[in-house]
Amino acid sequence: MNNLGYIVLAYFLGAIPFGYILPKLFKGEDVREYGSGNIGFTNVLRTFGPILAGLVLLGDASKGFVSVWLAVQTGSELLPLATAIAAVVGHSWTLFLRFQGGRGLATSAGAILALMPKVVGLLFLVWLAILLLFRYVSLASVSVAIAFPIVTLIAGYSWPYCLFSLILALVVIWRHRPNIKRLLAGTELKLGQKGERKSAR
Description:
By secondary structure, the chain is an all-alpha fold.
């Protein structure tokens, strides 16, 4: 398989909407009808609880990890970076849900784990600290996205990795725009608060 094939495969892996599929499979419900309307871990957690949310988190992170791991086997330095971005784009704009997907953080984390495992540990500590201080998952996620390029630069990674970290950070921040607006308006739900069911789609 050529490089383009790996990138396309990464997009399709990333596009698998676990946050939609698993609630439909186990609960017969569309998570998009609840809370923020997002298919990510946080909305599934608020709506259906930690077990189902944990499965969604595992699935979303695995998409990024597997996409990068497959590309790493080719021996290319740049291809794993491209497949990581493709997987996150696939998750964030999945063709299976009319290009409406998740926020991209979990899939990014899986990809970074395969590429830069030491960085993941530090970013997780940043995420956890912000979450414990403010109890907003979205604020913790945006904070980690901002920290990622900074940590990559300080850690001395090459310029392709620094560019990669910036692109991934921008995608995650862009996908969190609705959350940022709610944070500024004071209407964002904190961890533990349950989202209400939306009107019919």
